[in-house]
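__Record contents__

***
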Amino acid sequence: MLHCTVSRFSPHLIIFDKDGTLIDFHFMWATWLTNLAQQLESATQLLVAAPLYRAMDFDPQTQHVAPRGRLALLPMADLRRLTGEVLRKAGISDNDTERILAAHWHSPDPIALARPVTDLTQLFGTLRAQGVAIAIATSDDRAPTEILLRGLGLSDDVAAIVCADDRMPIKPAADMIAHLCAQLAIAPARAMMVGDSADDLRMGRAAGVGMTVGVLSGLSARDDLAPYADAIIPSVAALNALTC
């Protein structure tokens, strides 16, 4: 089993966030948003990119997504509604807004835009060989998450997933972890939560997991994670640093 020197905790289950924890958040979501903005400007012949970036808390000059911003935290359905608000504020009618969104709204390509932060096949294989179950709790929707796992050859390694469109309260509420633990018949106290945002770790604390681990591969700095993390590592590639 995985033995963590920080607390001598041996998890039966590790729950991973997805974007920023397993996948390069900046590349996926910055590329998606800039592409969406270009499509909307072409469709409307209006300069809607700048207000869309502001609404999403995204800096196009630095390609930086604010750690506590809307793009970082909101599920896709809410991002779509937010985009509609931007178009309406630009003077586009309700009917035209819905027509434009129907034609141009899309999720990030879960294959073309997915850059794993490390060799996930090796990582997950090692964890499973140690008897650790793997689950994913993500603010992304289920369909692209399942496509991503299949594309990376990880579907068989992941015992359960819970996503933003699964009709339960999202992070930092405890519900996602409670659902996964109930599904896998593993007590939250025997689970570890690994994520790149404070909300990931707050969710873990709210659910009563045995250990929360922050990673610096995503949006948040060490100081953002420290109040909620039992350990902080550069990325999931360093999970072995918590083992003995």
Remarks:
- The beta strands are 13-16, 58-59, 64-65, 133-137, 160-162, 191-195, 211-215, 231-233.
